[in-house]
Fold Endoglucanase.
Amino acid sequence: MGLFRRAAVCVIATVLVILFEVIFWDMSIELASTKVESLSHFRPNYTDALSKTILFFEGQRSGKLPPDQRMNWRSDSAIDDGQSIGVDLSGGYYDAGDNVKFGFPLAYTTTLLAWSTLEFSHMMGDEAKNAHAAIRWGTDYLLKASSQIDDNILHVQVGDTYSDHSCWQRPEDMDTLRTVATITASKPGSEVAAETAAALAASSLIFKSLDRDYSQLLLNRAIQVFEFADKYRGSYNDSVGYFACPFYCDFAGYLDELLWGALWLYKATGNEKYWNYVSTNLEWIEYDNPGEFGWDDKHAGIYVLIFKKLIQEDPSNHSIQKASTFSCLIMPESPNRIVEYSPGGLIYKSATNMQNVASLSFLLLVFSRYLESSSRTVRCGEITIQPSRLVQVARSQADYILGKNPQNMSYMTGYGDRFPQRVHHRGSSLPSVRSMPEKILCNGPESIQMKTKPNPNILVGAIVGGPNLTDVYTDDRDFFVQTEPTTYVNAPMVGVFAYFSHLQKNV
């Protein structure tokens, strides 16, 4: 997609957000003016939050569901995915409230689920096995998507977004186009391929002690996919642009994903060639913003991930400071802060904001542990910040999500007494197959769509897009920037809630 068209998409999105906030202002005022009870006795249940955060992924499953499926209002869906091209592409996750399987955020979600589990599985208790299942549901699909990598073929999306977005239909009834988007040697997509390699490599570490053969399969495939990503460089924006943009365009470029993929391969293999790849090419991102981290931008994640090795082996390396720079760009008291904070204390960067809250909170928590283990602090101008302060900020964000906020409500569906009722999610908002076996057609009758009524199926654990910069939240299904959940918001919060659950139990 050309730069002009990308800019146009951003402008249009911004205008739409403004229009929505004007249209739904009255509803927002009503919510905002609700009397807020004293939060001095706020007592979050992080263990419950952890359980629900992982359970959410079962609501996003595509394909044939297993016998132990707990989100039982969901049923089998899209089991024929890939048959049009002779490949089994069933399984995987729908990334948000629609019925498309976007390979880029799906791979990132899997990477972050694996990283969350690598860092905090010993704090998860019985939920560790559910985290493993969530990761494997992602990696099983990524193995299918990369099954033709010997021929330089990687399948990166299933579903035509325009067809899907014109239909409000539960996944079990889908009759929209299930077109497959593919990258090849002549039509490369280094960002999505390298992220897929990162997901497979990170996940191989999870299964190393659980299923050694599966772990090795993941690692071998990760090596192949990374070689493909690096050898045939290019952006999938150009190769499959119609499918990728404007939904999941890569605005940050693919060089950060190449470093990210190589870094996870180094962690999984210990092979110095991958570390040399990273250290030699860090200049690719040296002058970019180290305060960014998400499905599109891996800069801060890279600097945090390399911190421990550099501290141990090359303490004079200037890249060590980049991880500290990241935290200085986030911490409320830092003179270098670039993010905003709402009056209620929520990190705020964009309209679809909770993805920033989740990913940055996770990184702050991980970095605090790395700082602690190396007996270091962070220096932001004249201010010295202790690792414990990073933990405090991460906890403030977790608590905000769970109800310590001006709306006195949880932004996780199914958690607490007050949470979003009209989540922007097709399956959750329509009668389930169990309650209405008859097929619901595309944009069926108003009586079935129930546009103004609460969702009949609770998508337990879904963390929605969240309130705006003034802490105002509009519980309206059409206002997707605030009411739509995504897998890549929940994935890093698995680690965050695991940490605070463990802390809470051991106080």
Observations:
- Strands lie at 101-102, 153-158, 180-184, 340-341, 347-348, 378-380, 383-385.
